[in-house]
């Protein structure tokens, strides 16, 4: 009973559901290094920056952007004019480079990037977007939004496992009780049968003795 209960419980803990969580550029969880500028439906983004696709808003900054999350993947959407390094947990993931001249030549959208990293361990991570500040003119980042994938324990199957475990336990206890009852009944029947056969044996012996007595009597000369 204990083993099946524990196995079911473990299944409940192992199963997890993946959930995408969207974080807009205006979220307080996104930490911008220095003075930022928000462009949106009322304050349009400057030429060359297409950002503002999600929720009609983007945040422009000349300094770094940091975000902490616990999950297994992230997907971020941003514009870069200049160059920026994407760093995850202190390790460089990639460098996005869009010189101002290219962006001005190609027009809005040239500096747009969708960056992502999947297959991460389900632990806390820090994402940093660091602009190259030595460039002239300085790098400008237009941050639109990001999505991270959280891995949450499946509560439903957890409850299911507990209910299943309890039901299994009850079934096993019921089975053991039944088995004990049957064993007791068998013992009683056996004992009764033994007693019965002992009585029968006694009667048979008595009858034999009696018959023998009669025969003896017959054989006796009269
Ligand atoms: C989360 O979003 C990304 C990008 O939009 C998508 O590729 C992925 O399949 C989504 N994952 C889940 C669990 O919805
Ligand atoms: C969209 O933007 C509005 C105003 O900036 C903000 O209040 C809201 O939380 C944003 N929505 C999402 C899903 O982030
Ligand atoms: C748009 O951005 C400006 C700052 O650039 C801000 O003052 C305003 O509240 C924002 N509007 C919305 C709807 O978020
Ligand atoms: C992320 O977490 C680290 C360590 O807990 C903390 O030092 C840092 O300030 C956090 N950054 C953000 C953007 O929340
Ligand atoms: C980024 O993704 C959005 C929607 O997921 C798409 O509309 C856009 O074209 C992509 N941009 C780039 C540069 O791939
Ligand atoms: C910034 O850009 C300059 C010029 O392209 C380059 O030499 C330098 O290594 C870059 N710095 C970083 C931190 O990427």
Automatic annotation (TrEMBL):
Signal peptide start-end: 1-16
Keyword field contains Signal: yes
Spans traversing the lipid bilayer: 159-183
Keywords: Membrane, Signal, Transmembrane, Transmembrane helix
Record protein name field: Uncharacterized protein
Organism, scientific name: Mycena albidolilacea
